[in-house]
Write a structure and sequence with these properties.
By secondary structure, this protein is α+β, with helices and mostly antiparallel strands. It is built from one helix and four strands; from the N terminus they run βαβββ. The chain has one domain. Helices cover 21% and strands 34% of the residues. This is DUF1737 domain-containing protein.
């Protein structure tokens, strides 16, 4: 099994406002080799839509 770069964990959850910055963070993780784990969780904090996206490092033989 290969490991994520730069000492990153195998499992990550990214959270933040649903904006371009959040989308870029998720896209960057996918570019590194992470895969989406299920769909995002979405909530509203009274001002902004907040998103959480879990990502996993794929097991490779």
């Amino acid at each position: 099994m290969s490991t994520p770069p730069d000492g990153l964990p195998v499992y990550r959850v990214l959270t933040g406002p649903d904006d371009a910055t959040f989308c870029h963070r998720v896209s960057e993780a996918i570019g590194l080799g992470y895969e989406l784990h299920e769909g995002p969780a979405v909530t509203f904090n009274g001002e902004n839509v907040i998103v959480a996206q879990a990502l996993i490092w794929p097991a490779r033989s």
